[in-house]
Amino acid sequence: MDQILDQAPDRSPPSAPLRVLEDAFRAMVARSRDEPAPDLAARLDRLARLRTVVADNEERFRQAISADFGHRSAVETTIAETLLVFSEIRHATKHLKGWMAPQRVATALQFLPARNRLMPQPLGVVGIIAPWNYPLQLTLAPAIGALAAGNRIIIKPSELSPHFAALLRETVAQKFDATEMLVTGVEDEVAKAFAHLPFDHLVFTGSTRVGRLVAEAAGRNLTPVTLELGGKSPAIIDASADLEEAAERIAYGKLLNAGQTCIAPDYVLVPERSLQAFAEKVRAHMRRMFGTDPANKDYTSVISDRHYARLEGLVADAAQRGAKILQPARPDDPNWKAHRKFPPTLIVGATEDMAAMQEEIFGPVLPVLGYREAAEAIAFVNRRDRPLALYWFGKDRDARDEVLARTISGGVTVNDCLFHFTQINQPMGGVGASGTGAYHGEWGFRTFSKLKPVFYRSKFNRLADLYPPYGGKIARLEKLMRFMS
Description:
This protein is of the alpha/beta class. The chain contains 17 helices and 16 strands. The chain has a seven-stranded mixed β-sheet, sandwiched between helices.
């Protein structure tokens, strides 16, 4: 382990935070090897303590997250973070005994009498590199799966959410031993070294660009990774869709958390004849939901000045290239900028050469493009990296099934946005550039477990006939095995 740690960047001399991280990692690995498989009671206790961490500090977490954003809607923190965490813990607690039980597996006839079983075992120490956009939910959802599977966890919060990170570190330390679950600081050297540690599994949620760097660092240790990334998630409005309904649901899906959601609709493909009408309907619903006052407490701020400036640049580029921009105010309006709230923006008639169509937007900016035939919309999606989410709106079942069959994405919601993520019995994960691996519910338990195959041979089994000296018995056994194969 020391040799592997010595491969991390900027190793001489190690800073105090880095020494603390490495010492904690060594201690946790040692403990996981001494106690490799905590029983059901120990796992349930850890899940209960994690719930207490959130329940006892719910308002403090809301305030800390809001402080990091500049302003975060309290309602959005509750429904999109706290309640989802409680739901995940409750589900894991209810089903954990069944998940932990050895699974029966059929035994081929030629190997009878015998038994096959799959035995779920903890991987060991899991590292979680958490994002800033939903810091509570996207940090603790994988942690719940890892704890249920019997692992120990080290969490590295985002440097863009320092208030949340400090609170999580404090509250976790009050309920967990440092060899059970630990939250690191957000210092630069910790961030750079974290993915280089030889974890038994590493989870990263964030951008595709950084995800590549994390995968590369983890690959040096052959550490398996779960990457929850993003990309440009499309919404396709079919000719059979109810435009009013689709516009309302896309407006909500886009503006939740001010668009700072990895599965937010990133752009919309609309039949050309309906392009302007649809855009106007989306704008109307955005106004109805969030108004035009930047002081609106329901509307969340952009996380940083740098991200705000990036969004300004995307809109300016689109306007320069001929798109029609619909927004209640200019982004440089002092009333909006003082709150670091970006006006809900529609880019009508977006084209592929615009910067807004080249990168994930991650903000309240929505390009709307026209298409002539359904096949054209499908081809447009398929020319790009496979998205984390895809949304389809319409009533034509054949058209729906055609899109589902001919596109590949991390997940799909039909006639709405986002809600496939909330389905605890479904896996959440990307594909290709939008990620790899999955978690949620039992899928998280499986991700953070080794399903170890075990073969139990009976004393009456004739496999000994395979041993030399072979003679005539092997010919008879070979004939039998060929027949059964």
